[in-house]
Amino acid sequence: MTPATRSFPTAQAGAVLAAIGIALGAFGAHALKARLGTDLLADYETGVRYQMYAALALLALGSSGRPQRAGLWLTLGAVIFSGSLYVLALSGVRWLGAVTPIGGALLIAGFVIAALDARRA
User: What backbone phi and psi angles, to 5 degrees, belong to 47?
Assistant: First the structure.
C-alpha cells in the first residue's frame, strides 16, 4: 500500500459523508419536496441514499483498524455520484447525468477493492 492510501481518514470521511447525507436528506424532505418534480426529487433522493451507503461502508472499514485502500475510491465515488445528482436535481441541467456514472464506477471499484482486501485479511 502507498503512504497516501494508509493515511486516508476512512472513518472520518464516512462520518462527514453521513452527517452531510442526513442534512441533505432532511433538506430534500422538507424544503425540496414541494419545489421539485417527482423525477428530480427521485434523483436527489438517489444521491442521498448512495451517499449514505458509502458513508456507512467507510465507517465500517475505518473501524476495522486495518489500513484501507478502498476509502479514497468510495469517498470520491460518493462525492461525484451524489454530487452530480444533487446539482442535476437543483439546477435541472440534464447533461450532468453523464457525470454520474463516473462516480458510480468509482463506488463499484471501492467496494471491489474492499472485498479484495477483506479476502486477504
Answer: -60, -45
Distance CA 117, CA 43 (A): 32
Give the number of other Cβ atoms within 10 Å of residue 12's Cβ: 14
Domain ranges of the chain: 10-120
CA–CA gap between residue 17 and residue 22 (Å, rounded): 9
d(CA 8, CA 72) in angstroms, rounded, equals 7
**Sign of torsion over alpha carbons 82, 37, 24, 60:** negative
pLDDT band for position 6 (50/70/90)?
low
What tens digit of pLDDT does each residue of 38-67 get?
A: 999 999 999 999 999 999 999 999 988 877
Please answer whether residues 60 and 102 qualify as being in contact, where contact means their C-beta atoms are separated by less than 8 angstroms: no
| H helix intervals, the chain | 3-6, 10-27, 38-62, 70-91, 100-120
